[in-house]
Amino acid sequence: MSGTTHTRPPGSGTRQGEPTEGEGAELPSLAPWEAPVEAPIQELVEEARGATTDAERAALAAEINRQLDALAARGGSREVADLLHHLLESGQLAGLVDTEGRSCRASATEALMRLGFPFALEVRPEDLDHLRGQDADAPGSRWAPLAAGGTLGAGIVAQWVLLLERGLPGSGDLQPLVLLMGLSLMALLTGVLAPERSTSQRAGLLVLAILSVIQVFLGVFWGYDGAISGLAGLLACLLIWLPRR
């Protein structure tokens, strides 16, 4: 993956709408069964770029972002990926920002990542940097990971304090709890470092939630310690997954 090109699966052929010699770039069309019910995104983009007021442009950008999210929710396909590539590479989304400060370029990049493999691998580094910059500036982007990490850390510390007060059990009884706590920290780290709403973040948070539920189950029903750290892990998942903008 380079800064200007992206890979495509073998045998995919020339991308529909890709410019050839002597021809201009044209917007690739979605298959009829995948066409959005709403007005085509391309028409909204052109209307937004020609808007005469900032308020009108921001409102149209919000609608563009909504449709981009809807496209991503439908699942991966070559046609949808080509449409997103066209919008990003043509520069048409530059300067389009909705009323909440979310740029259309960031939404298109995030939508491409949400399509999953192999389309997420085609994201250009410069678009990914722009997305990360948007997420870094979003409300709650700084405190949410810190709060989640602090919550899980406090839960683990509290669990060990309780263990010390009761008297440490044998090493054989402690091994499962130590393993679960270590894996929970690794899963939280994945959820914090991964791009927001990306597949890798979802995977990290899912693993953390499963490990936390196991700890709560063992602590409540099997007499093992771990309920406190498990509850802390579930709360950390919620802090990361709650909307940040």
Q: In a few lines, what is going on in this structure?
A:
The chain is mainly alpha-helical and 245 residues long.
The low-confidence runs, each spanning 5 or more residues with pLDDT under 50, are: 1-39
Instruction: Give the topology string: H per helix, E per strand.
Output: HHHHHHHHH
For the record, give the distance between the C-alpha atoms at the N and C termini, rounded to a whole number: 30 Å
Tell the overall outline.
elongated
Count of beta strands: 0
Helical residue percent band = 55-70%
The count of domains is 2
Count of DSSP H/I helices: 9
Largest sheet: none
SS content category: mainly alpha
Mean pLDDT: 76
Q: Beta fraction of the residues?
A: under 5%
* Gyration radius over CA: 23 Å
Keywords: Membrane, Transmembrane, Transmembrane helix
